[in-house]
Fold this protein.
Amino acid sequence: MPIPGLFITGTDTGVGKTFVACGLAAALRAAGINVGVMKPVATGCRGRLPEDARRLLRAACAGAPPDRVAPFAYAPPLSPDQAARLARRPVRLPAIRTAFRSLAAQHDAMIVEGVGGLLAPLGPGRAAADIAAWIDLPILIVARAGLGTLNHTLLTLEAARRRKLTIAGVVLNRSTPGRAGRPERLNPGTLRREAGVPVWGPIPFRAGPSAFRRLAASIGLLGR
């Protein structure tokens, strides 16, 4: 990796991108790594700094100017392209890369959380996948463990490969409590057979630091 770190994307809304990104950032920080965080594009924001970005900064115990951590934050809870059009402030990939490089120069590793899934539109001819390409970080795909994840995850992998993105792997996250059903028990094995990339998890609901320490080590962000 030119810059150690990950771009965290998801297969759907509510799969736990922020939870996983925060867990990994905290694991790096606990290991003594100076980790920076970023949420380049966010919608549904109630202030200059999106709540996801605040959570990331808390997890990393980091501080940085809002215009670097979250350069494109929009109030409407809409897709990025719709929110940007209403705000008359389009998402600009060169500005994201400049902010990323500024943060990366001050940290040993970077955890960057995407917006929506890889194909979430940013504007004409642009999608969230282009952010990962512009900042040149491998992607970690966060997926739910339950019913529906096979199609969503394999489609996301197909989109990533079509764009020639580097794929670190897939992490399955249990975003709801309760006993795992049959799909949650069987899906990990199917994905490990079909995905063609490492598949970790499922991460338990509200997993603690030890789970993310193991995950970070398995991905290669920490020594084993």
About this structure: Residues 5-219 form a domain with the Rossmann fold fold (CATH 3.40.50.300).
